[in-house]
Amino acid sequence: MASTIGLGADGRPVIGIIGGSGVYDIPGLSDIGWRRINSPFGDPSDELMFGRLGDLQLVFLPRHGRGHVHAPSDLNYRANIDAMKRAGVTEILSVSAVGSLKEDLAPGTFVIVDDFIDRTFAREKSFFTKGCVAHVSVGHPVCPRMGDAVEAAGARIGLSMHRGGTYIAMEGPQFSTLAESRLYRSWGASVIGMTNMPEAKLAREAELCYATVAMVTDFDSWHPEHDKVTVDQVIKVLLGNADNARTLVREVAPLLGARRETCHAGCHTALDYALITAPEKRDPALLAKLDAVAGRVLGA
Ligand SMILES: CSC[C@H]1O[C@H](OP(=O)(O)O)[C@H](O)[C@@H]1O
Ligand SMILES: Nc1ncnc2[nH]cnc12
């Protein structure tokens, strides 16, 4: 019998969208309702918006809250991912604004990121802390199946897309210095942002597929002809591309929704060999909090 791990109650995927800067809703869905989902890890950024696209269930979370009230370092990434999992989400597509670290990734380009460098340092990065330690693999932090779907959807609607690229996650909220920007370029990173880590790592811990589509809004600080990033410049490019991002989401959802089996890349079984704390030493209070994230392996 086919495994139903990683599918929703109706045997279909439930698509979660985390909208970044400039993406605070997804128009065009039916049966829309905003609902607060409580998480034992704290407050998610906002209520979650539930809606349908045909026969598919979508769940949307504005990463910074409606009205962009939360800074990257203040986001409760654990609560956001836990709430998505509690809402039944099986895969997360992140939409993010980024600076470009490469000449050929001009503002307006959509990059289907396939790797990350995590330079953040002031955030909770794991669900698995004292009393239930786990180490998941993030060697391939992005779900390749989702990347294929985003690429196909982008081609269908004629978006300027680039498949592959490393996203460097910085702490922020200030943009990079010239020396930092040059350093990241020397490391071969393609784009820079402040939010996708630890989000992607936590999604993996929660056994959710994760992919990000990064909208280039600026050339960060390294470019001799564009040597300063400003929010108004970022917003201008964002507003010009937000509709494209929303169209992309509506186009990619049915492709993701076609799956009827557990993700072949292993995202939905990431915890199979990850727990290391001896069962008799596990902290019952932490185990209770992990009911959604790790219920499959903890038997909750
Ligand atoms: C408004 S520019 C800086 C801001 O935009 C990006 O956020 P997101 O990934 O949520 O689109 C970047 O990481 C910063 O948080
Ligand atoms: N240059 C940049 N650095 C970090 N985050 C960003 N988001 C958009 N542009 C950015």
Automatic annotation (TrEMBL):
<feature type="binding site">
    <location>
        <begin position="63"/>
        <end position="64"/>
    </location>
    <ligand>
        <name>phosphate</name>
    </ligand>
</feature>
<feature type="site" description="Important for substrate specificity">
    <location>
        <position position="176"/>
    </location>
</feature>
<dbReference type="Pfam" id="PF01048">
    <property type="entry name" value="PNP_UDP_1"/>
</dbReference>
<comment type="subunit">
    <text>Homohexamer. Dimer of a homotrimer.</text>
</comment>
<feature type="binding site">
    <location>
        <begin position="96"/>
        <end position="97"/>
    </location>
    <ligand>
        <name>phosphate</name>
    </ligand>
</feature>
<feature type="binding site">
    <location>
        <position position="195"/>
    </location>
    <ligand>
        <name>phosphate</name>
    </ligand>
</feature>
<comment type="function">
    <text>Catalyzes the reversible phosphorylation of S-methyl-5'-thioadenosine (MTA) to adenine and 5-methylthioribose-1-phosphate. Involved in the breakdown of MTA, a major by-product of polyamine biosynthesis. Responsible for the first step in the methionine salvage pathway after MTA has been generated from S-adenosylmethionine. Has broad substrate specificity with 6-aminopurine nucleosides as preferred substrates.</text>
</comment>
<keyword id="KW-0328">Glycosyltransferase</keyword>
<keyword id="KW-0660">Purine salvage</keyword>
<dbReference type="InterPro" id="IPR035994">
    <property type="entry name" value="Nucleoside_phosphorylase_sf"/>
</dbReference>
<feature type="binding site">
    <location>
        <position position="21"/>
    </location>
    <ligand>
        <name>phosphate</name>
    </ligand>
</feature>
<feature type="site" description="Important for substrate specificity">
    <location>
        <position position="231"/>
    </location>
</feature>
<feature type="domain" description="Nucleoside phosphorylase">
    <location>
        <begin position="15"/>
        <end position="252"/>
    </location>
</feature>
<dbReference type="GO" id="GO:0017061">
    <property type="term" value="F:S-methyl-5-thioadenosine phosphorylase activity"/>
</dbReference>
<dbReference type="InterPro" id="IPR010044">
    <property type="entry name" value="MTAP"/>
</dbReference>
<comment type="pathway">
    <text>Amino-acid biosynthesis; L-methionine biosynthesis via salvage pathway; S-methyl-5-thio-alpha-D-ribose 1-phosphate from S-methyl-5'-thioadenosine (phosphorylase route): step 1/1.</text>
</comment>
<keyword id="KW-0808">Transferase</keyword>
<protein>
    <recommendedName>
        <fullName>S-methyl-5'-thioadenosine phosphorylase</fullName>
        <ecNumber>2.4.2.28</ecNumber>
    </recommendedName>
</protein>
<feature type="binding site">
    <location>
        <position position="194"/>
    </location>
    <ligand>
        <name>substrate</name>
    </ligand>
</feature>
<dbReference type="InterPro" id="IPR000845">
    <property type="entry name" value="Nucleoside_phosphorylase_d"/>
</dbReference>
<comment type="similarity">
    <text>Belongs to the PNP/MTAP phosphorylase family. MTAP subfamily.</text>
</comment>
<feature type="binding site">
    <location>
        <begin position="218"/>
        <end position="220"/>
    </location>
    <ligand>
        <name>substrate</name>
    </ligand>
</feature>
